Each structure stands twice: as structure tokens, then as C-alpha cells.
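User: Um, any thoughts?
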Amino acid sequence: MTLTNTTPRPLIAGNWKMNGLSAALDEARAVAAELDRQPAAARVAIFPPATLLHRLAEAVEGSFVLTGGQDCHDKRSGAHTGDISAEMIADAGGTLVIVGHSERRTDHGETCQHVAAKTEAAIAAGLEPIICVGESLAQREAGEAVAFVVGQLRNSLPVSLAGKTFNVAYEPLWAIGTGHVASVDNIVEMHAAIRAELIALFGEDGRAVQILYGGSVKPENAREILAAPEVGGALVGGASLKAKDFLAIIEAA
């Protein structure tokens, strides 16, 4: 990606999902140490499980590695056993949060309206949200992928985002953790549609929103994906768990 003075830096975000015990902090430290030695062109963020967020934030403090939460509740506090608020993420050292990940939408029945409320909570807490959208294999095979994703995006973005910093991640459900990757043509088509919708919703500010691709991003395919038009970074799953693989993807940006 060729950067200009007005082009935001790519964002490479590592989503650890429900993986990682204390020993995994060494992988984050290794990433931070390498980026301190050789700073990357991209911004880099790690999203560990909530049990590690505070310790990971402390482990990489002062480095080029940002940290964030994998999800947040749409309320600031209250009787919501097992949930974590955006303010708690910020208090633990996080500066970003993922909302609307397909695994939350599918496994927990989260609607676009719910995702929009979480996004508002993230902005109120001073966090930078990554809002996820993506279609199923059945929707793609039926020729409904673009229309579905654009509608999902529109309904997941609250008007309070106007003028704020946020990111969108396109993650085709059929390519998450399966080893399958959308073709570059698929990615370019979808990211162009997402960009058009962002501009329709937020005017010129919509041009500055980074659109990440997520779906089995690996060192072997990262460079080709990240070079595609309107790809402003990657939401990386399994490959972010090992410093060597994650650093290779970061370098590709």
C-alpha cells in the first residue's frame, strides 16, 4: 500500500479469540520487541481474552503495540453477569474494541441494532471500534453477498460515529478459521461497496475509515490481500497467536 499524507496507516489487528494463558504474553512481548527494533508501516493491535488484557497492556506498555477488547456490553455497568463494559476495557489498558464479530452475531444472536449500541458505548468510553460485517456461504452462493453486507453495515453504524475514528472489518463467515480465503476480486468488490456506503453515510469522512479484511489471513497470502484496493489492514485470527506468523503479516503491510 502506498501511503500519502492523507492516507491512514494500515491496521493489523490480532484477535486471539478464546485462546491464550499467561504463557501467551511472551508472544506479545516478542511482537513488541521486534517492532521496537524495526517499527512497522502499520499500526498493530492485539486483542487477547479479557483475562489477559490488563497484563498484556502492561507487558507491551511503551511499545508500538496497541491493545483492545474482543467485545463489550452496551451498558456502562449493572447486573450483567459475565459481561465487560467498554469502560472496563479502557480501565484495563485497552484502546480499541471489536464489535459485531461474526462469532458474536452467530453464537450469541447479536443483531445489528445490538452492535450499533455497543459501538456507541465504545465511542463514549474513548475506544476505537472495529465493526465487523460479513456474509454466509449461502448468501454468497445466492448472489446476495454485497446487498447483505451493505445492509448489515448500514444498520450497525450509529450516527454518533460521525467525525469519530473507527474501522470496519469485512469477514466472510465461510472464510473464518476454515483455511478458505475470498478471492482478491471478491475482496475488492466488497470493500468498494463498503467504501461507497461509508461515503454515503458520513460524506468525505467516510473515505478515511480503514476497511480491514478478515478471513484466514496468513503470512502466505497477506501481501496480496493487503495490496488490494481499499484494503486498509487485516483482522487476523489464528495466525496472530504466534509472534513469527503475526510479524510476517505486519511486515506485509
In short: The first helix runs from residue 25 to 37. The chain has one domain: 11-240. The chain has a mean pLDDT of 95.
